[in-house]
Fold:
Amino acid sequence: MAKSESKSRLNGLGASAVPPVDIEPLLEVNQRGIEAVAQANSHVLQNMARLNSEIFQFVSRRLEHDRKTAKEFAACSSPQEAYSVCGKFLESAMKQYSEEMGVITGLYTDQLRQTIEDTQHQLHEAVNSSVDAEKQSSS
Structure:
């Protein structure tokens, strides 16, 4: 059998044996998926901006505290005063870093919660879109 004869037989069989596929529902579901990813990315970027802002503000506060302590340290007239300034500085720094870690952990927790909610919502939407598309195609 020649190649061209074989091809025409397959094309003839393929055209009659395979029913046409309506890809419109598939395109609609895919569009919803793209929208879902874009929305989730938007939330992630907003949360990252909040986190970066918090870190920047913390660093600014810490630098101001460091500057103030350096002035106090320079004004010390005895080793005991210097020791006291260093002790207060370390105590204050540890407290501030500890508190900031709590703030950052809270921001991360909020971001994780938001991501989980977005994912659940988008999965729910995708499933509903698929079910609706299936119902429409079978009607």
Notes: The two ends are 43 Å apart (CA to CA).
